[in-house]
Design brief:
binds zinc ion; 4-stranded mixed β-sheet; binds manganese (II) ion; 12 strands; 6% strand; alpha/beta; binds adenosine monophosphate; extended
Length: 918
Amino acid sequence: MNNEHKTRVAFTIATITTAAIISIIFTVRRRTRRKQLESSSNSCYSHSEQKPQCTFKRVLADNSYTPFKHLSFNASGSNDAEKGSNLHPFEAEITALLTNNHQPEIELGAKKLEMNDSYVWVDTEMQLKELVDVLSNERFFGVDTEQHSLRSFLGFTGLVQISTQQDDYLIDTIALHDSMEILRPVFANPSICKVFHGADNDVLWLQRDFHIYIVNLFDTSKACEVLSKPQKSLAYLLETYCGVTTNKLLQREDWRQRPLSAEMVQYARTDAHYLLYIANCLIIELKQLDNENTCSDDKFHFVLEASRRSNMICLQLFTKEIEASPGESAALSLYSRHQSNQGSPSISDETQFLYTVRQLCTWRDLMARIHDESLKYVLSDQAIVALASQLPASHSKIYNTIVQTDVNAETGLTSFIPSPSPVVCSHLSDISQLLANELVKHGDIYSVILQKCLGQKGSCKLNIFNYALLVNSNLRPTLSYKHSSLKNPRQHSRKASRNLFVKKFSCKSPVYHNCRIFANDGRLLCYCDRKKLEWYLSRDLAKLVDEEPPAIMLLFEPKGRPEDEGNDFYIQSKKNICVGCGEGNHYLRYRIIPSCYRIHFPEHLKSHRSHDIVLLCVDCHEAAHAAAEKYKRKVASEFGIPLYVRRVIHPGQETEKLNDEGGVSPLQLRSAALALLNHGPRMPLNRREELTEIVKRYYGGREISEEDLESALQVGMRPIERRRYEKKRGVSFKHSTGNAAAVPEGENHADCAPRVSNVDTLNVDTLNGSYANEETRSGDNRQDDSGEPSLISDLAVDKATSNGNTILIKTTDDDEDDHDEAVNVDESLNRKQQNVVSDLSDSRDEESLRDEDSTQAKHHSKLSLLGHGPHGKQVVDHLLKEYGEDGVREFCQRWRQVFVDALKPRFLPGGWDVKHRI
Ligand code: AMP
Ligand code: MN
Ligand code: ZN
């Protein structure tokens, strides 16, 4: 090998090695970067935010489920917090005051009232000790506390104000959190009277944060009670006794703030400074009353009573509210509030809804404990309701749902709560999994979340407030309620929701009256309800042949018989039971062919309704409904017709195809607009662009203005939503014209502002004349997500029937039947007889208890854009165009098959057939 060759080989080897090394380095770097990205997307805001309470070295009440331990004394007299008890450490001392008829002795000399500019800010242990020395020599002092509760699970004391006759002290309880116990002796000293106003909370807060217990309290609000003062607020007392006005709004300030603003200092001092003077005045009044009636022996002791009531407060003990299932009471109260607000969505949605509310409440409770935040900071009540009812699937949809709901609900002072909170932003994937029912696959929600957040590779910061959650995780309440009757939330929620539905929706009276109509040769023609029967009788077209259940025989020969059509179905008597399982105690109607399709069928294919409306109990109804919803999605993908409208129609653009690419759902549009309006400037740029893109798509790609955003906010809102929205925004758009609603006042309509964005609203207006009218309808226009008003219209009928108010339901088929029949009767009997066949075919339907199709047809125009209305129409149009009426018939058969497959019904009436034809 010559040198040249050697060099070349060496060079090649070097090159290859270098390339390999470089490639390894790059791979490693890439991996590290990916890992960094992953971990940064994993990590929680809790790592980067330093909250004041993080400086506390000891906390008495942490966020775990372990009960609060009160101060206890061991034999040697020194306190031993570790042993902790649930007894009041000063019960004996307080009881002594109560039984010894303790009289408060607050006598001020010529003490001047004015509050000068000087006060003592106490934020070192040294100063605190000096204060204790001062207080030990006082016979009374005034006290008030301020607490912070938004960014803390249990809340903590941010300031304690103490006023003696000489000075006002403001104690920085954040800086001195771990030293506050120095004050215990003076507070527990029975010979020093502590004057508070409305001490109930302060007493508990001082126990919770510092194990400070009060012995010998005089509460000016209790004195007001005893004196029967017209008011007992501190503001009232300050005003009447001291001529001082105070702005109570300041109590809601963030008392963690340092330094305190001058205004806050003033407020805090005022709350304590005048207490001694006010107490003195009140005691004088109490004594006067005592002196006024000295004659009787069993007289009412005013001073003693005020003192007794005050010291009773001291006996209260702080406890952590520990629920059997955390978040449970919140969930139930949310649920019942939602119930009374919303009326009644469809049954399966309702079950899911309650279940999701409970899950979200539990999640919120645990997240609040882990991050030491208040529940309302983590996630607002209204956001929980919105998430549970809309079940947004993607992170951005979840984000938008929360923003939108919170902004809509925004009320003055709470507006500084970020929405969504950093907790939600750091843990969006939890919510997304929870909503998809994927968060908890095995185990329970507590261990899953604890592990995710605080476990070995947990995303969140371990701290003094949450570590006991992890350490004592065996104490978490899941264990306790496993043994209770509420086996698991899901079961309980199902049970609650089922009962609710049985009560609300089941038919109030038997559905089938099973009245029979016989031909004049004695052959059974059909079953019907009483009304139909009476119609024939009143016109002397039939005679009564049986009483219970009633039967008539026609006095004329009907043209055609059911069996001629080869169909026995209509001459079967029908039982008032669930066709699925035979349950006879409650049942409701179920439409086998979803109304969103059926209402678009050609009129003659809509007859024979009774075949495709069956009775189901709540459970079978739920199962059938779920199967139908699932199949709807299948239909949507099979036909390529989305369930939700993709594009909102502009005026003059009606010709545009609904499934046009680049469409935008009203909800998406609204959320985007809302987020942009309220948070636009503060959003990350890429998020802002993303949202702007959505809104621009709606406006055909042109640049958009603030007004456009405002208009977009109202696209596709239901009238009720819009009214709420207007109320909240304090804007009132004219109701008489649908157009005005979408366009801000004074806006020139000539450009492409979406004037008919509220297509549904507009039509509702013209149909019903007014919104008020619409509201009084018993919810029949309300639709569930599926766009099916089915259950709701059932409800309307039930109500009408059970009231004996048939007029109401006659806005449906009956009107039309009566009308036709009236015409027939006016003409010759001959003509009438010819019509009997068609009458009979109608009367078959009578027994189906009215499909309400016509109601729906009438209301069709107001099918919400958010429902499946447009989807149904497109599917039916497609079927008719491609396969004609047979396509529709086959489509019906498919739905019957879906129904049969889902329920395996055992009690279908004889003659019922998947292949049933018209
Ligand atoms: P106060 O002694 O009246 O200033 O109230 C003491 C503490 O109670 C305040 O610092 C607040 O944390 C809390 N607080 C009392 N009333 C309200 C309220 N209406 N809204 C919010 N917080 C309140
Ligand atoms: Mn106060
Ligand atoms: Zn976290």
